[in-house]
Amino acid sequence: MFDSFVAGQLAIGASVGLTYALVAIGFTLIYRVLSAVNFAHGEVYTLGAFATLVAVTTLKAPPLAAVPLVIVVGLAAGLGIERVAFRPFRRFTDEASLKSRAVREATLLSSLALGIVGREAMDQVWHGQWLAIPQDKMLNQPVNLGGVMLSAGELAIAGLSLVLLVGLQWLLLRTRVGLEIRAVSSNLVGAQFSGIDINRVVLATFAVGSILGALAGMVVSLAYGSIQSSMGLTVVLKAFVAMVIGGLTSIPGAVVAGVLIGVAEGAASLWVASAWTEMVAYVLLIFTLIFFPRGLFRRRGA
Amino acid sequence: MNRPLPLGWLLAAVILVVVPAALWLFGSAYAARLAQLVLITALLAAALNLLIGTAGLLSLDTVVYYGFGAYLTAILSTNYGTTLPTEILAAAAAGALLGGLIGWPLVRLASIFFAVATMGLATIFHTTVLNWVDLTRGPMGYRGIPAFKLGEFTIDGWAGNYYVIAVVVLGGVWIVHRLTHSYYGNAMRAAREDEDCARAMGLSPHALKLQAYAVHASLMSVAGALYAHANNFLSPDNFVLLESGLTLTAVVVGGLGSLPGAFIGALVVVLVPELLRPLGNLRAFGFGMILFLSILFLPRGLWSEVSSLAFVRRHLFREGWLKR
Amino acid sequence: MLKTLAVLAAVLFAAAAQAQAQTLKFGCYIPLTGPVAQYGKSMLNGFNMALKDFEATGKLKGAKVVIQCEDDQNRADDGINIARKFVEDKDVLAVLGSWASTVTLAAAPIYNTAKIVNMTPISSHPDVTKLGPYVFRQSIIQTAEGAANAEYLMKLGVKRLAMIGLPNDYGKANIALTRKAYEAKGGTVVFEEFIRPDAQDFRATLQKAMRENPDTIYMGLFAPQGSLVAKQARQMGIKIPIYGAAALDSRDFLKLAGDAAEGVRMLLVYNPSTGPKMAEFFKRYEQQFGAPPEPFAANAYLTFTMMLDMVATQMPKVNRESIREGLDKMRDLDTIAGPLKYDPATREWNFRFFPGLIEKGSFNVVK
């Protein structure tokens, strides 16, 4: 039975999945380099959304003109997080401590704590309220694409995911910075010995990853229109799951996995009530891990 | 003559004599409530410490077994009028069984994969208790859970509650202590540090990790049983992922792999938010800051594994149980 | 030396005078941090305004009123901790709170055992006041709202209803009670589903609902989710009317839903057009806080004002027990929300509902 209803549910799922994928891109980039989870990524995403709101309401700019501001905010947030929550744990430069589990767990928790601080700080500024992107600034115009009705927001999310994905692959595989990033991510100590300035590479990664996170926050908030200081909380968990299903270090893998989660949620809602679909991503995750213990798209040798 | 008092006895004396005496002196039910929460959190932290600190598995599924034990006890005691020993045994056995079943495929996973899988378990658990209304009464919450019962005798009042919790928690912590400060604990540490070396020595890392996981599940389930009676009310919101984060915080702030650290960490995560109440709406901000600064400046926690092991070894040497 | 003594005497005298003036202390527990902090902060405004207004009436006869608000972070554990703390504080006469029924259900039994009145201005779970004789409620009750919803829906001629709710204690009770009352009046519920509260895309649920061919969509939701559902329904080209729970009466809904809010119907409790007292309250609140009151703020204001007025009649012999007796003796009260009736069997106040409609970006009472 494949009727338009089923197709509709799956399409909605895919569109939701793209928002997971979009957030997962920046998240995965940071993990790839440091093997450290940056839980404050969700707050960068939220900051991106708030920067968009400030741009379109206070500064009365058109949505697209918010991009520079969002990039600056993402950049500042990324550099700040690296400096405050990650750099202090790289003060020992011997191989053992750079690779130690304790350091990874410490950064996981320090970024989690920094996330709480950031979220509560935003709560103080915006009084924990739900805020709206004005309707005329939202990307919700219906677009007819060969008989299928889509909204401009969905197209923007899909488009941005694609652009970021291709751009990042180009950056990683075709540029000097990308080479350095790959070197650091595959062998931190070795990269150091061959004269790469690790701090600079890590900073660059955080800058790029956080700009991507902030841009994701911008596009999603423009598409859905509602913003609140704790909005990044669940999104970052979904991004995390997408990253793991995608094999941890593969950015295209994370994108595919993000869409896959969304489609699975859409498919599940055909049989069960929506309230239960919350667990779909995690059931998918656990099954993936049991049958593919290293994720679906693990790079060979990584 | 000047042999120092062993730490364990000191801890037991503080928990069983000093704290109740102070509570009785000041007659504070509020302080007694916090003391109960500290003890329950300490048992959770000790169990999590066994898994993270000793066996090296970073886990975020505290709420799964904690909530499982709590709901199991709530259902047993309201529907069948069970008494304390039955409930503790049931929670321990069912927790171990569930932990064993879930742990079997999971503990094979490498570090971060394991952490994410346990995070998923926590969400799956929360969704289940929230939506399985017939069993858990869902979001309406499970209320009217009776007080502790020992035989025909109902224990209420803070002193009775406190002692029941204190004795069970000390028992649980003692089990973790025996497991970690033994050859068995060293085998777990060996498997944590290098699986291949452990295998070469004839140890099975999978079995060791699975056992650690099942024991941790069992102890957390017991903590949940205590919590159900201490609170008289359960709701799915008590068991969200963030609460797992709180236990993890206790472990990390206290010091990975150390049992005194579990108590110190529990004190911190229960008491600091209470002490920050005067901050009003800056309270969570303050807690985040304290958490962040403590991780930054005390990356090994307040009482880390090395110092606690050193402490224990020193005493064992002094008492002549080990030869240098 | 003499000077020092004089100063000391003056200080002692002042302290004695201070001790003479009676202090009436009230406790309150609400979420001030965390994801739902905004509702707690709204309530805090209501409490503070009630206190200020009451002080201005001069009914105090020199007594001082204090309200100590503690943050429960919307956690049951925190609610119990605060309860233990207030019970011990001999000065606390009565306690107000909390926002979420979950927290109230966990904490209220402790107040009840300690014989302190816990009056909740918000928690609408049907079981709250069944916890014991010291638990009171001054808020919309879900049973009453369900009956009023059913009446309004029937009046609108709704035959086939699709219901979407929040999967928490509020949402489950809201949907169940409205459904019961609506079906008793002969309506048919063709679809019922609970959404994921932290999702932001509800089109899958809407599409499922539309397959059952309803003639109205009912949302048992708060503004953040309700606005998304309404917006996405209009975006998908769903033309049928949308009807919301009374909880949607919030400026947030207008702000977040924009044009999609137009034509949405719901029951209103607090609306400036329902009476001159309410209109005046709206005006003064806006002057004080720079924005019109949310229903939570109005409810908190009403509850605390009622409590203070009752206590003023008992001055100077006020204690924990006298407050319970006083509250239980009340029957009728003229408030900003019009005349209210107390039901001693359930220890609840019955609110009046007004059929409402969103038109031109504001909540209006339908005549």
The side-by-side strand order for the widest beta sheet of chain C comes to 2-1-3-4-5
CATH architecture of the largest domain in chain C: 3-Layer(aba) Sandwich
> What is the β-strand count of chain C?
15
- Find the CATH superfamily of the largest domain in chain C: Response regulator
Strand order of the largest sheet of chain B: 1-4
> Radius of gyration of chain B over alpha carbons?
20 Å
What's the CATH class of the largest domain in chain C, please? Answer: Alpha Beta
Number of helices of chain C: 12
Number of domains of chain B: 1
> How are helices and strands ordered from N to C of chain C?
HEHEHEHEEHEHEHEHEHEHHHEEEEE
Largest beta-sheet details of chain B: 2 strands, antiparallel
**Broad shape of chain C:** globular
Element string of chain B (H = helix, E = strand): HHHHHHEEEHHHHEHHHH
Oligomeric state? heterotrimer
Quantity of strands of chain B, as a count: 4
**Low-confidence spans of chain B: pLDDT under 50, at least 5 residues?**
none
Please report the two chains with the greatest interface, counting residues with C-beta closer than 8 angstroms to the partner's C-beta.
Answer: A-B, 45 and 40 residues
What is the molecular shape of chain B? globular
What's a concise summary of this model?
The complex is a heterotrimer of chains A (302), B (324) and C (367). Chain A has helices spanning 4-34, 41-57, 66-86, 95-99, 101-126, 152-174, 176-186, 188-193, 198-224, 232-245, 251-268, 280-291; strands at 131-132, 142-145, 148-151, 226-227. Chain A has 302 residues and is mainly α.
Describe the fold and architecture.
The complex is a heterotrimer of chains A (302), B (324) and C (367). Chain A has twelve helices and four strands; from the N terminus they run H-H-H-H-H-E-E-E-H-H-H-H-E-H-H-H. With 302 residues, chain A is mainly α. A two-stranded antiparallel sheet of chain A has the order 1-4. Chain A has a two-stranded antiparallel ribbon with strand order 2-3. The longest helix of chain A is centred in the first third of the chain and has 31 residues, at 4-34. By secondary structure, chain B is mostly helical. Chain B has one domain. Chain C is an alpha/beta fold and 367 residues long. Chain C has two domains: 20-140 and 277-350, Rossmann fold (3-Layer(aba) Sandwich), CATH 3.40.50; 143-268, 3-Layer(aba) Sandwich (Rossmann fold), CATH 3.40.50. Chain C has helices at 2-20, 37-57, 76-88, 101-113, 142-155, 169-184, 203-211, 223-235, 251-257, 276-289, 295-314, 320-329, and strands at residues 23-30, 64-71, 92-97, 117-120, 135-137, 160-165, 188-194, 216-220, 242-244, 265-268, 332-335, 338-343, 348-350, 354-359, 362-365.
